[in-house]
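Proteins fold reproducibly. Next comes a concrete instance:

***
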Amino acid sequence: MAEKNTEEKKPLADKVSGFLSKYRVLFIGVIVALIIVAIVWGVISSVTTSSHQKGLNQLDSIIYTLSKADEASVDTARDVALPQVLELAEKNKGNIVGLRSSMAAAEIYFSQEKWGEARDCWLAAATTKNAGYTAAVCYYNAAVCSEELAEVDLAIDYYKKAISTPDCEFESHLLFSLGRLLEGKGDYTAAAENYSNLKDNYPSDSWTSLAESRLIALKAEGKIQ
């Protein structure tokens, strides 16, 4: 009993010290493991950054060569560059190299007037993780491709997605484009709502002047109140 009382009266510091001493191997093992994890993570981050930079350098080299092609050889240069860019995009889905490669491929397809292929690449870029401010641009271009394909409903959908993306810096243009397509479909009320949205939120914008002219015309034609 005396031994038990003596044990209970030991200072807390002694108890903690004894506990740490007893399990010191375990604690040291945990610390070592954490250090190893940190080192491995640092190596992985470094390798990833290096890999991304290598991919971006490859893409820049391809695009630079393409940009140097004269008018007589530009079509051939595009045919040479496109599969290389697509390969980079395929190998780097979900990272910055894939994002930029998809956008580059979209631009090549667009210049060839291959609207469907261009749209697919714009959408791949728009949905890439951390697309950021480029997502709005990609959805906008996907909408333009859809218009070229006479797929108006899809164009409207992509314009709306462009507006809803964070960091969209050209909402006034998108609102007018939406109004224009809705007006073309005969949905004059919805078109007027977009035109009025422009008027209310961007009173000094050049697209607002066009929107106001359309509102006046729609009222004059008796299509809206």
